[in-house]
Amino acid sequence: MEDKVNVLISEEEVSARIKEMAAVLNRKYRGRTIHLIGILKGSIMFMSELSKYLTVPVTMDFLAISSYGNGTSSTGNINLRMDLSVDIEGRDVVIVEDILDSGRTLSYVVELLKERKPETLKVITLLDKPDRRVVNVDLEMTGFEIPDRFVVGYGLDYAEKYRNLPYIGALD
Ligand code: IMP
Ligand code: MG
């Protein structure tokens, strides 16, 4: 059976907000190079859209995390599935994530990357579900705070589907 996807944040709204986020980064990182690190796979669409509007020099890398949960939430059991391809020592790193939920994934990634001595380490996320937080994570910037609903699209999946939707939808 097809799941019902209701538009929560339209393509136009997402796109406008990402341009604003890029403008903030362009000001903050003037004279520096932003090393974007996307967390696969959810961050792909946000990261590619954001990077189009960055006017400071940009480099990119990715890492993949696995967390064993019930499919709609992560557990404490988080592992690195694919590591970065270049060293981050001395770089101005911006971690790019699709959604901050319990905070377990991002706090794991932040602790992991901190040990590798980047010059600076910031986190940006397209979506934030603050009601679900279990572990605190310091965010540099958030696209949208959303209520505690399961969302798909713009990189986010349900059982690997819907990542390609150009808007954020709620699965109800
Ligand atoms: P956390 O570790 O609980 O913060 O979960 C973060 C990860 O769970 C995200 O990177 C997503 O992959 C996934 N996730 C959390 N909430 C949603 C959602 O509403 N839709 C799709 N994936 C989600
Ligand atoms: Mg993810």
Task: Kindly describe this structure.
With 172 residues, the protein is α/β, with parallel strands linked by helices. It is 22% helix and 33% strand. It has a six-stranded mixed beta sheet, sandwiched between helices. The chain has a three-stranded antiparallel beta sheet with strand order 1-9-8, with helices on one face. Strand 5, helix 3 and strand 6 form a beta-alpha-beta unit. Helix 1 packs across helix 2. It is globular. The two termini are 13 Å apart. The model has no long low-confidence stretch (mean pLDDT 95). The site of magnesium ion (MG) has 3 residues, from loops. The site of magnesium ion has 3 residues, from loops.
Fold topology:
Elements: E1 5-9, H1 11-28, E2 34-40, H2 44-52, E3 58-67, E4 78-82, E5 92-100, H3 104-114, E6 120-128, E7 141-145, E8 151-152, E9 168-171
Parallel strand pairs: 2-3, 2-5, 5-6, 6-7
Antiparallel strand pairs: 1-9, 3-4, 8-9
The structure holds inosinic acid and magnesium ion.
Magnesium ion binds at residues 39, 42, 98.
Offer a few descriptive terms.
binds magnesium ion, alpha/beta, binds inosinic acid, six-stranded mixed β-sheet
- The gross shape turns out to be globular
Report the total helices.
3
Largest sheet: 6 strands, mixed
Poorly predicted parts: none
- Gyration radius (Cα, Å) is 15 Å
Strand tally: 9
Overall pLDDT confidence: 95
Question: In a nutshell, what does this entry contain?
Answer:
The protein has 172 residues and is of the alpha/beta class. The chain contains 3 helices and 9 strands.
